[in-house]
User: What shape does this take?
Amino acid sequence: MPTEKKLKILAEKCLQFSSAKLQDEFKDFDGFEEFNGKVKAALMKKFEVMEGNKDFYHACHQTSVVPNPVNEEMDKIIIELEAYISKLRKESDQWDKLVSRYENLQSEDLQIHETGRTNEKEEVRDCDLPDEVKLSASNYLVEPLDLHEIRKEITLNAKLIPLYKWDLNPRREDPTVT
Assistant: This one.
């Protein structure tokens, strides 16, 4: 059975049900049965007209739906809320990283305090500046010198330089020194 026939039958059954309910409610009123018969006849005639106009067919096979302005407004609000929620999640992740780093530093400080000594070689860390500040300062700041590397080069070069006459403490026999 086609869906439009099912829809017409459903409408007729709903009319019959409503009519029976009204008849039970208003059975004591004079003239109600006559009124009820007229209403039923008018609606059945309307259903026939609707079937002739193929209103039931169009109701079942309608492909496009007119957008509801309330739904469009809600869709905009949902998009805004999803963007806000995404921003909050990113911010929450950043806070979690910051708290984790702070807790790690706190535990390191507590360890140093308990043992009473620091690490043999302390680490030099970049300051925690935002990337925008680092980028803007890159033209003004020079990279910090690696003092450990400079010391190694000086030590290595000092071993390679031969001793000359002007050395105050000659370590080898030099015939020119008297």
Observations:
- Residues 69-115 form the longest helix (47 residues).
- DSSP finds six helices and no strands in the chain.
- The chain has a mean pLDDT of 78.
